[in-house]
Amino acid sequence: MPALNPQALVDYHMHTHQCPDGHDSAEEMALAAVRMGLTEMGISEHLDTSPHDEGYGCYDDAAVEAALARAREAADGRLVIRKGVEVCYQPALEEAARQALARCSHVDYVIGSVHYLDSQYPPPEAFTEPQRDATYRRYILDCLRLVESGLCDILGHFEYLRRHDGQAGFSYEPERYRDEVEAVLRAVVERGVVLELNTSGLRRPGEHWYPSLWTLERYRALGGEAVSLGSDAHRAADVAAGIGRALALLQDLGFRYVVTFKERRRRWVAIDRFGP
Question: Residue 229's domain spans which residues?
Fold first, then answer.
């Protein structure tokens, strides 16, 4: 296997204590990134627009800018630190999300993610028969709407609902929803959105990738050339977790690039040390 390009060691999905579910400061995340050998990282705080979400109203753009300045000072030039934001997408709140993004003073990239259906996380029975298929198809459709909305640069943790795989009664089989999944992947390719390979599922029982290997393979077959990498760390100890494994997996699957962003313009970085 070709040697990895150090410039591809990137983690663009992480949250600080400025989010309700975050634990550490931006400086602590940055220093962890330096220790882990990253060359570039991005803080992507939650931008939640549903009053039902625990993070509703918590996003403070000025505070984020100040935290990033402190993180860059702590990193002292040892890595690039970008400003991202993660929009929790719901079709009924699309315009609210658009307006919230417009109020941000500067953003390098936007991750769009679907966490909820109808403003809540589906209850356990929604993942079992006879509701299972309807739940997964609704989730995938919302992901398609997100990509088509033009809100995001990156589709975050696609197939996130498979986080329950391995638990009694839960089973997500992407092949079962092939038409719907491929519609999302085609939209990603056609609209210039980047698919994220999210490693947070590796820290859960069963070790899941988001998206699944099957879906990554279909993305490649349908013309997907590059991905964004994200640990989805909510504490400094998880920064860059699984990123090395993710790069090795991408090599195995025939991907040649990861993507970085500056001012919402993307840059392709070769995964292999000597390029494609």
Answer: 6-270
